[in-house]
Amino acid sequence: MKIATFNINGINTRLANLRAWLEAAEPDVVCLQELKATDAQFPDKAVREAGYDAVWKGEHRWNGVAILSRIGAPVVTRRELPGEPADAQSRYIEAAVGGVLVGCLYLPNGNPQPGPKFDYKLAWMERLNAHAATLLASGAPAVLAGDYNVVPTEADIYNSRSWKKDALLQPGSRAAFARLLEQGWTDALRERFPHDPPPWTFWQYFRQAWERDAGLRIDHLLLSPAAAERLTDAGVDRDVRGAEKASDHAPAWITLD
For residue range 17-50, what is the model confidence (pLDDT) as tens digits? Predict the structure, then answer.
């Protein structure tokens, strides 16, 4: 079972890129972020033509998340992160698919910091940690996949010198991510690459970041113990970032036995 996460950065703008990757990589389940489309604008017909059922939660202009499956229709278990009923941003969707509970998330960026956007990011992470604990308590195989907008350690960035003030690297962001792992979640890419620098998942559009391989690792797949014991491989399809009109992210993936 191959599960992938991909910040598509505009699903309709990059629909051709998405379909080309789906055909080449053949993931069974895909978590998409930054749809930048309302529910009505989601290209359900094109996704079905590619062989996938989908569930999604859109939002005008920004955000938006979706789960695609070619191994049976995803059964939605949650369309929002619990803990704040007034939060209308489309950043979380969860579904059961292929015997695995899959949470697709788009964690707030948090810039500029300090300020209300960073406060929202930290509050969202606390809500995520609380919900993650309930998933662990269930004992079910679960995967929390998506764009976390957190660079966990200095080893997860090409050079942090110009990023010191960025919300992705702040001690508060990193500490919240570390607390999530301490619950018992396995960072699949770090598990797969324990000694080497892990593969990047994001390269900015400016300052020739892609050409210089000046990347970051901010897209993560976290596995519950029941899922981690089935992990056989993990990686990043970095060539997708080099395609014409590409997203600034590359798909990250895992395979479960």
Answer: 999 999 999 999 999 999 999 999 999 999 999 9
* Nearest alpha carbon to residue 118 among 150, 146, 161, 140: 150
Task: Find tokens 């993936």 and name the residue.
Answer: 253
* 147 catalytically annotated: yes
CA distance linking residue 76 with residue 97, whole number of Å: 9
Question: Per residue in 238-249, pLDDT tens?
Answer: 999 999 999 999
- The span from the CA of 176 to the CA of 164, in Å, is 17
Annotated catalytic residue 158: no
3-state secondary structure of 174: helix
Choose the catalytic residue: 106, 156, 166, 187.
106
Query: Any alpha helices (H) in the chain, and if so which ranges?
Result: 15-25, 44-49, 116-138, 171-182, 188-192, 209-212, 225-228
Would you list the DSSP string of 39-57?
Answer: TTTS-HHHHHHTT-EEEEE
pLDDT of 53 above 90: yes
Catalytic residue among 28, 52, 92, 147: 147
Q: Which of helix, strand or coil describes residue 82?
A: coil
